[in-house]
Amino acid sequence: MLSVRGFKDQLKKGIPTEVRGDAWESILGNEVRISDKLYDALLERVRLCEENLESEVQFKKNIKVIENDLHRTYSDLGLFRYGEKLYQPLKNVLAAYSVFRIDLGYV
């Protein structure tokens, strides 16, 4: 078993991709109970909104802010800039949440 210090040292190295989802769920929890099936359905809703962008006014506003924020997120590292490895996965999560919580959108 890792000590707290050992755990922190491992976190600094990054959470391996293959266990990242489980690790974050363990750390943060999943109070809204978003399953893989629900997440896939939300991504499908995002895809439909993107196809009908002109009629999806609120989604269009949300996605514009999301895209702007991605470039500012840890900007010194550049991890979430367009074309980088983590850009699309984070955009997917934020867009999915914006259609999941229509009352909040992307805040």
Q: What does this protein structure show overall?
A:
The chain is 64% helix and 0% strand. With 107 residues, it is mostly helical.
Strand fraction:
under 5%
Please identify the top-level CATH class of the largest domain. Answer: Mainly Alpha
From the spread of the alpha carbons, the general shape counts as globular
Low-confidence runs (pLDDT<50, min 5 residues)?
A: none
- The SSE order reads HHHHH
Rounded to an integer in angstroms, the radius of gyration calculated over CA atoms is 16 Å
**What's the count of strands?**
0
Mean pLDDT: 88
Tally the structural domains.
Answer: 2
Largest sheet: none
Class by helix and strand content? mainly alpha
Number of distinct helices: 5
- End-to-end Cα distance: 39 Å
Under the CATH scheme, the architecture of the largest domain is Orthogonal Bundle
Range of helix content: 55-70%
Kindly identify the CATH topology of the largest domain.
Helicase, Ruva Protein, domain 3
Q: At the fourth CATH level, what is the homologous superfamily of the largest domain?
A: putative rabgap domain of human tbc1 domain family member 14 like domains
Can you describe this structure in just a few lines?
By secondary structure, the protein is mostly helical.
